[in-house]
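Data deposition worksheet. Section B asks for the primary sequence of the deposited chain exactly as it was used as input, without tags or linkers unless they were present during the calculation. Section C holds the resulting structure in token form. Section D is free text for depositor observations; keep each observation to a single sentence. Incomplete worksheets are returned to the depositor.
Section A, Depositor: J.P.
Section B:
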Amino acid sequence: MVLRAMYSGVSGLRAEGEALGVVGDNIANVNTVGFKGQRVIFHDVLGHSILAGSSSALPGSGVRVGGIQQLFTQGSLANTGVSTDLALNGDGFFVVQGTVAGVAGNFYTRAGQFVIDNQGNLTDSGGLKVQGYAANPDGTFQASISAIKAPTASIQPNATALMEITANLDANATTPTLPWDAQNPANTANFSTSMTAYDSLGNAHQLEVYFRKTAANTWDYHVLAKGSELATPVVGNAEIGTGSLAFTTNGALNTVTTTTAVTASFAGATAAQAITLDFGTPIAGGGTGLDGSTQFGSPSNVSSQSQDGYSSGDFAGVAVDGQGVVMGLYTNGEKLAIGQLAVAKFRANEGLGRAGQNLWIETRDSGTGAMGTAGSGGRGAVSAGTLESSNVDLAEEFVGLIQHQRSFSANSKTITTADEMLQELINIKR
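Section C:
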């Protein structure tokens, strides 16, 4: 029995020493971004076979480390203000690809300290390329994952092809006494709004849209450009498009009629640039007539307006939304989709293998990572400009450190006592 006690004490020293190593690793990584703490699982050791069928209560033979469990609880999110710093709030892992310690493939991380390298690739701090779904020219995303790469080159200008206007035209307005005059629009129209349009060279042009009430519930619109900016200059204003709006008696847009399609030939740019005016979906077009321009008994005003053109612009950085969509930012104010981050979800996170450098690899115990996008299938949302802190609780680790140290000392005392008893037995024999 004395020897059994000694062996039990030795097993305790070994197990507590390993536990101290785990606690020390946790404490060392308390400030490591995306780090997940671990804990030791102890198993008792039987001193006899459980198949022997003995009814005698026999003491065990000490303790052993049954395993080291990874703890994937959510770490707190810390704001950094850096647009490429990303955190996952919820389940899942960012996917990075490259070579680590001679092993090439996909790796998984919660540490979103990403940067854009000199090739435009979004990478982690170790140079591994962040994976996602690249954007197609039409704004959709590809089905397979690849490296997220920012097009750092300038973007070409885009000529305006669509102008949207949401306005209310005063139902109480009266028809101006003077006939419509493009050179005297202020006195021959009831209301106007200005919009910027871009030609094929990215030059900005100020267009004026005038509204003139012609009858009850009926308005004409006139689109004017500066005559001096046209390929064939004219003096004063140039009328480049006309049409009419008809409303119901409850103010809903009933019909939109185009008299002259909006077309402009600006100097040096592509000739006959066509621009579609969108005032909302009229009743005749299958809409309610209330989702755009209306005619109510309140002063005329514009609630919103937009156009799809822009000038050339240089790459200025990226922005990421909650679904992991990476947008390229340009000096002209445009945002173009680059791609959408891939987020891997595992059946058992605890089964992932640690690869160092804040990385994990999939194993048989973890299962294969299911690729998807942030916010889908139980995956967490992406928080831009933040980082996930280590989930290590320093106070708890200090408590555990004291417990393991005292247990280590107690086991050493067991060995010392057993040694003294064994010495007494030897002395008795002598």
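Section D:
The longest helix spans residues 394-429.
The helical segments are 2-28, 185-188, 394-429.
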